[in-house]
Amino acid sequence: MIYFWFILGLVVGSFLNVCIYRLPREESIIWPSSHCPRCGKDLRPLDLIPLISFFLLRGRCRSCGEKISPRYPLVELLTGCGFVGVFILSGGEFVPLIFQSVFLSALIVIFFVDLEHSVIPDSASYLGILAGLLYNFLFGWPVFLSALGGALLGYLILYLISLAGRLYYKKDVLGDGDLYLAVVLGAWLGWGGVLAAIFLSYLLAALVLLTLLLSGRVKFGQYVPFGPALAAGGLITLFFGPQLIGFYLEKFWL
């Protein structure tokens, strides 16, 4: 079963690549069929085999020779591995497996769209919020209220950070998409989980930004999208949240 879920993850990852390319361009993710963005030629069935086709084609379009971004096999592999992780996390139980796979998929789309275009698709955020609240509702009112509180808390924290940054720097430091993404994380992870996710997000963002500054790839004050850090923090919390929270409480509070 776990091998099937890995292959399914590869297939879903291929679809996520379509979403990552088309959503920021406000194109339909259903029609037209997959094609080369340069020459417009429809892709053949052999060109659509997840992960394998990229290497068979040597990273180029069969028709025009345009280079294919390595992001395509990367997203497919990440989704396949992520689906395996979710299968293990859920113990193979159907409902958690399906819903957590949706959460994982939404965060992968958000991660790469924001990384490439500095925008977070509203559709991915809305899907994440609704799915998260519905999923937690299935486990009873206490869990649902934690999810609802987490969604509100996530928005409030990033709103206050955004407001403070606007007052201090005289410009926006966070976009509305970042605030909605915090709502997504809270709706899935609850109030304790969203705190951990936001903390991890800023830690990851600081490490990456410091590396970019030292390497000269960005300059001080230059805008760097925060969505990828939030998405990464959310995924880490999904898989390791209870252990991280328990470790923090043991070391610093108990």
TrEMBL record:
Cross-referenced InterPro entries: Peptidase_A24A_bac (IPR014032), Prepilin_IV_endopep_pep (IPR000045), Prepilin_pept_A24_N (IPR010627), Prepilin_peptidase/N-MTase (IPR050882)
Family recorded in the similarity comment: Belongs to the peptidase A24 family.
The enzyme's E.C. designation: 2.1.1.-, 3.4.23.43
Name of the protein in question: Prepilin leader peptidase/N-methyltransferase
Transmembrane segments: 6-23, 72-89, 95-113, 125-144, 150-169, 181-214, 226-249
GO cellular component: plasma membrane
Keyword annotations: Cell inner membrane, Cell membrane, Hydrolase, Membrane, Methyltransferase, Multifunctional enzyme, Protease, Transferase, Transmembrane, Transmembrane helix
One BP term from GO: signal peptide processing
Bilayer topology term: Multi-pass membrane protein
Domain of life where this protein originates: Bacteria
Cell compartment(s), UniProt: Cell inner membrane; Cell membrane
Record field: catalytic activity: Typically cleaves a -Gly-|-Phe- bond to release an N-terminal, basic peptide of 5-8 residues from type IV prepilin, and then N-methylates the new N-terminal amino group, the methyl donor being S-adenosyl-L-methionine
Residue intervals of the Prepilin type IV endopeptidase peptidase domain: 102-209
A Pfam family: Peptidase_A24
Segments forming domain Prepilin peptidase A24 N-terminal: 7-88
GO molecular-function terms, A-Z: aspartic-type endopeptidase activity; methyltransferase activity
Job description of the protein: Plays an essential role in type IV pili and type II pseudopili formation by proteolytically removing the leader sequence from substrate proteins and subsequently monomethylating the alpha-amino group of the newly exposed N-terminal phenylalanine.
Gene3D superfamilies tied to this protein: 1.20.120.1220
